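Bumping my old thread because nobody answered last time. Still need a sequence for this structure:
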């Protein structure tokens, strides 16, 4: 089917639950977050390519990939050196296949799914808007929440991007929230570098 019916929404939400990435989370262009003043372009020296999940993203040389605690997360990267108590990162998770296929005309359904995913978390949404990333439609949310372990207020720039029967969750975290302004140029450059690439297929096995 193409557009998810009401009965499919609950199943879809369960399937992709956990996309928020409020915790630790692996690897080698259009509308942008408006949390702060426009940032200058930033060059990114490193590139992560995931052919199995079908995406690539660039990141600064001063950042390093980390092993995700959630096996459903494909990529997590953060600064090599951080002040004590800080936990800044960028995270990519691709959920596929979804129980429904989304096209450019399904923005209302995309919004319902995105809202449902965030409604399962205790967050304070500062901004939300329809966006396009790597030529795919979706929704961007800027929100904050309180980290239960540290008591710090954490800021997320979170994008739900729909690619047919795949959902791409892209999260930029600033912890504490006060670091968001200084990280914005990096977040914007990483976001703009994100590309969807063909998913690798297994080589066919010759029959005996």
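Sorry it took so long. Here it is:
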């Amino acid at each position: 089917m193409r557009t998810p019916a009401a009965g499919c929404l609950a199943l879809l939400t369960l399937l992709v639950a956990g996309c928020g990435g409020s915790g630790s989370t692996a690897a080698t262009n259009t509308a942008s977050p408006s949390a702060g003043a426009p940032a200058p372009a930033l060059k990114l020296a490193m590139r992560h390519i995931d052919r199995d999940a079908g995406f690539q993203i660039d990141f600064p040389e001063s950042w390093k990939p980390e092993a995700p605690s959630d096996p459903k997360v494909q990529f997590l990267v953060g600064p090599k050196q951080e002040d004590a108590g800080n936990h800044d990162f960028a995270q990519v998770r691709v959920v596929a296949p979804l129980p429904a296929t989304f096209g450019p005309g399904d923005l209302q359904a995309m919004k319902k799914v995105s809202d449902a995913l965030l409604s399962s978390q205790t967050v304070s949404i500062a901004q939300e808007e329809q966006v396009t990333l790597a030529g795919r439609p979706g929704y961007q949310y800027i929100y904050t929440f309180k980290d239960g372990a540290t008591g710090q207020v954490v800021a997320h720039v979170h994008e739900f991007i729909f690619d047919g029967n795949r959902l791409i969750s892209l999260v930029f975290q600033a912890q504490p929230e006060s670091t968001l302004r200084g990280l914005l140029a990096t977040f914007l450059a990483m976001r703009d570098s994100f590309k969807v690439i063909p998913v690798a297929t297994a080589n066919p096995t010759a029959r005996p």
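The two ends are 37 Å apart (CA to CA). Let me know if any region looks off to you.
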